[in-house]
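Progress report, Aim 2. The chain analyzed during this reporting quarter is listed below.
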Amino acid sequence: MDVLEIDNISLSFGGVNALTDVSMSAAAGKITAVIGPNGAGKTSLFNVVSGFYKPNHGAVRMAGVDITAVRPHRRAFLGIARTFQNVALFRGMTVLDNIKLGAHTTLRSGPLAAGVFLGRTRREESALREQIEREVISLLELDHIRHKPVQELSYGLQKRVELARALVMRPKLLLLDEPVAGMNREEKGELSHFILEARERWQTTVLLIEHDMGMVMDLSDRVVVLNFGRNIAAGTSYEVKHNPEVISAYLGRAEAS
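Predicted structure tokens for the chain:
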């Protein structure tokens, strides 16, 4: 079953078309990559899936349910989690506290109970912390830095913390927007490993934007290619890599011929 279906989505800003009749899907438990040159519309597509942008027409469905008009915070409760191109952590907080913020969709205590922080709320917070440390922090090997402020960490570790914050939601659909951008080879290898481990452990469906073609080809079960806001190809890594239109989009027609 497809966890995500995007059906003929179009999006424009002041007459400039960012997306034109884009359709694609993400199969349950699989890693689907969205690639394309700069300006192809990849992040705009993510913003439509996240609910940050409302498309001019078309539909976004999750598990067969139309969520096109659902607000971003409600999509989080439906099981959509996301990381961003630029690190979006709370710099004055520790690693553990940043990760805990991702679990807001799983907590039952209201604002008043949380402010008093007694009884059930305290027990819920304690159970959440134990779960995070046992599952997510252990999986991503963040044990040794869990009490450090995030601003003291290297860029690669900050990106890992951001992934942990998304995973603690136990998302049905995980959106990763250039997760290894700016990393060295070792950091890229480590984060790729953690993405695969998370997918295997929780059968999380992953939608990935990435410019590192080596990572895309190694990780992805399916690849979708955009160019100038339109679909130009979709298929396995091998099929996409040898598609003449994809080669042309990346290298230019003269080089492709």
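The radius of gyration is 19 Å. Residues 110-116 have pLDDT under 50 and may be disordered. These observations will guide the mutagenesis work planned for the next reporting period.
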